[in-house]
Amino acid sequence: MDKRRRVTVIVMAACVLVGVGAGLATARPSGARKSEGTAALTPGAYPIKTMLNTKLEVPRPKGTTTATGTFSGTLKVASKTKATLTWKLTFAHLTGPALAAHVHLGAPGKVGKVVVPLCGPCRSGRGGTKAVSAVAAAAMIAGKAYVNVHTKANPGGEIRGTVKAKASNTSGNPYANITVAVTPALVAQGKALSERYGCEACHTLNGEKSTGPTWKGLAGRNVRLTTGQVVRATDGYLISAIEQPDAEITEGYSSGIMSTAIGNIPLAQAKAIVAYIKSVK
Question: Which of 23, 90, 101, 163 has minimal CB crowding within 10 Å?
């Protein structure tokens, strides 16, 4: 058997072992699975910094006690059900090549199913961005998830660390502390972007109702959300409304419209659009 086929077989064996162990460890009544699937998330950015070692792995790995690693990144929650994970994985002193790495469900000392496949095979310093389920995101925020690295000697995992994603600020809005300066150049850029994206098809400039809230006098005004909460339309709130349009919905309006029609808008462009909104009195 050549080297490539041998590595493929090993990776498949590791996945089978992980899957079998996860199935036994996470078996529960169907009602519990239903409640996990409806986990509600709080929008925001959640930094992650996790140390991996052999002592946390279950079962204890064979042939090494010095292998270590780090798993870092940011869990970005866009809405109550949507999130993405930007991650980077480093490791050293493994017994052999890293065949795979995953994020699993599971509290410390427990084995759980794979919820975010990271890489396979893996190299130290590897990173990327992945969409993650609400269940996976909720587990990472609650500290009930872990990341581990699999090798030939330890197909069930050689190093492991608990993932605990912590909110970067108390408001849950990653843009809360941003202030946008209203300069003629930035307002002009924002106006051009508004025309480019067709923003005024949904947001009027004269106070009239439309598909979205009017931009007239919006900046600095109190806004009532569908949750009943009243928030102030600060620069950070307005940026969040552009970057994460389904995170907080204004009362009387529907989610999904802007994200479907426009998609992702770069942060620099969002700031320019906010400058334009602030100019609409």
Answer: 23
Beta strand 44-53 with 68-77: parallel, antiparallel or unpaired? antiparallel
Q: How many residues does the chain have?
A: 281
**CB 206, CB 214: distance < 8 Å:** yes
The pTM score is 0.54
Contacts of 105 (CB under 8 A, 6+ apart): 22, 26, 112, 113, 115, 135, 136, 139, 144, 145
| Superfamily of chain region 184-279 | Cytochrome c-like domain (1.10.760.10)
Q: How far apart are CA 145 and CA 159, in angstroms?
A: 14
Residue range(s) of every CATH 1.10.760.10 domain in the chain: 184-279
